[in-house]
User: What shape does this take?
Amino acid sequence: MRSPKKKPFSNSRKRSKFKIINWPEYNNILRNRGRIDFMISNNLAKNWYEQNNNGKKRGGQRRYTDQAILVCLQIRCLFKLKLRQCQGFINWIFEISGAQITCPDYTTLSRRGKSLDLESLLGDADEEFNHVSIDSTGIQTYTGNEWLENKHGLQYLRRIWKKLHIVVGDNGKIIANSTTDHKKDDRSQVKELTKNIKTKELLGDPGYDGENIYKMLRKKGIKPTIRPPNIVAKKAKTERQHGAAYQQNKGYQAWRNKNKYGRRESVENTFFRFKNSFGSKFLSRNEQNMKNEMTIKCQLLNKMLKIGKAKSMRIA
Assistant: This one.
């Protein structure tokens, strides 16, 4: 029989209130998030065209650099534009600024966007963290089939979702991400997401609970702080079982305080900021473009954090 669900928070946490103490500065930061020179580059025209196109390769030659394609896709994600609208918007920016360059065609953006190498776009491989937090959220995708099925009276199709998995460092930045099918288990992404991350501890919700995850993280020298299940074996032998037994005997709140599990809330806050800034839907339809779109949006969210963030204090 499943044990009763425990109350997640104490009454003091439910009634707590916070106040932003740097509102004038934060108000200006929010304005700057809409400025292209802050979010993208001070010089959009730098390295825009390929310089070494001497016709050595057969077929059509690349006119625009990967950096130019990336900048255009960043502007697209920042302002939530369709590809055609993005092309017109960027050309207008160049026209009023007097820049002697043009935006790649929308078909070029779609085609070249699939082949961009964005592996190094997030974080620094040499950066070390005291702890990181991992979690996933749903992003809605739309193919048009739902509308056709419903219009012609056929069986209703559920909206299709994909999962965005992220790892957030102790500084609040997203340092790794992946995009998978909505049926993919969260635990399947832990090894891939943590392969280049140097940290002492990883915090995760019950979706990452499992003996194999504990063993894999310990092998890498990472302490797993994952909320254990409510039911355990009578004789606790493993680290996971000991944690579950402690929670069973003293309650979730005691386990939470002992492991400082509240630090994991930074990843929940990151998802809140992500969906507030970019929405919960894909702009792209191609699988690879969807993955690259999520990476670009994560990078833009990191830039927003770099510009500045709100500072708050508890008042009640």
